[in-house]
């Protein structure tokens, strides 16, 4: 596999790697993409995802792909708020400022692949592979990158393992887009902490930190929230490792229309702190800290029409009953008496003087509770009642390596590592503690495209 041809070597075929491949190819470079998964499981977390890309633009959706449109100011304020001011502002501005243009660019590629829009990650992924294949870009499947090759101080290629044999693949530059370490229980326990080895994985089984290890071994600077991750409410009985056919099926993010209780029968977080897209990604961590590392989302009939469609799937871990006592009997392990008392206390605390409005942050909260609910508080009094068993489901890890604004990897002293670029989940410094919905795909696409353009430009100049 060593042929000496001038080219850009890209590791990982998710949205970051494929955006890099398309951008580098458009800039005139020859590109090869290395992907660890077989064709049947290709696409990384991108393929598992909901496909929602939040971008700057006028409110609503304009048909060019799925996801919210927000103002630049709102996007920056959201990422700043959810990261408690820790986000790297220069990096955040870079991807937010590139979001609208990059989404339109992706959309053009998808239209050329026969898609009118994308509403799920599978369509986004298929469209990107279609675009890459049409440009004649080679994708080597079942090929695992394990190390970087450096010559005269420049990263020029990767060592790969294929069919248990080692090969070297060389070019002019390497773009790492191999995801985080969310599918590696040993690294999760090591960096995220005790208990994280036990959580269910929502996305690709191939994102085990290989790209990060290769970069760190080459002297890249660790950056960002290495003890933090995106983790959500996920079905209690979902498989330990998600599969492509289920995609988002096990996600339980309509919690703001009810209450969440632990096995002690107690509430432990503000279910209505903010809109779901601004808090859902931090709740997995809070559930992990509860007894048995699990919780129950509880709703009454008033919330029934507000729950997302996947709650209705027959595979949901759901209990229903016409009384709260009957419901509690179907919630194995819960302190039934305390649960009934918690609902009664909650019902008494709901501020019925404020009108309920599911469409906005309505300010209809509770008052006087140790843990209040800030919005969308409705009494739980209308049967049938429903309870959904949930556990933490990890999406991706926040710790990464440091890049400059053109996608170049920086070393531990802050200098550029010549020939080495990174994008996607591997980029550290964007997300801390929490995450604004729809910014994973967007930041991965923007930084992938930037890395592809920079790598092609610098390789041609070299
Ligand atoms: C269930 C779920 C729902 C989501 N929904 C959304 C959403 O709606 N909106 C949003 O913005 N984000 C969402 N996300 C997050 C989003 O999917 C990721 O942030 C984004 O896809 C990251 O892109 P990436 O290219 O960095 O990683 P990936 O798409 O994961 O691609 C990484 C690739 O690298 C490959 N790889 C790993 N190691 C090696 C190696 N050693 N050699 C070769 N290849 C390797 C992997 O096989 C994989 O294909 C969701 C994630 C999940 C799991």
Describe the protein in words.
This protein has 462 residues and is an alpha/beta fold. It has helices spanning 15-26, 44-48, 72-82, 89-112, 121-134, 185-192, 210-217, 276-288, 324-329, 336-349, 439-461, and strands spanning 8-11, 31-34, 55-56, 69-70, 138-140, 144-151, 154-162, 165-170, 173-176, 200-201, 222-223, 229-235, 259-261, 295-299, 318-321, 385-397, 400-401, 408-410, 416-422. Helix 1 (15-26) runs parallel beside helix 5, helix 1 (15-26) packs parallel to helix 11 (439-461) and helix 4 crosses helix 5 (121-134). The longest helix is centred in the N-terminal third of the chain and has 24 residues, at 89-112. The site of flavin-adenine dinucleotide has 43 residues, from helix 1, helix 2, strand 6, helix 7 and strand 16.
Number of helices: 11
In whole angstroms, the N-to-C terminal distance is 23 Å
Bound molecules: flavin-adenine dinucleotide
Low-confidence stretches: 1-5
The helix-strand sequence is EHEHEEHHHEEEEEHEHEEEHEEHHEEEEH
Tell me about the largest β-sheet: 6 strands, mixed
Strand content: 15-25%
The structure class reads alpha/beta
Rg, rounded, reads: 23 Å
Mean of residue pLDDT? 95
Question: How many extended strands?
Answer: 19
Principal-axes geometry comes out as elongated
| Share in helix | 25-40%
| Cross-sheet strand order for the largest sheet | 5-2-1-9-19-18
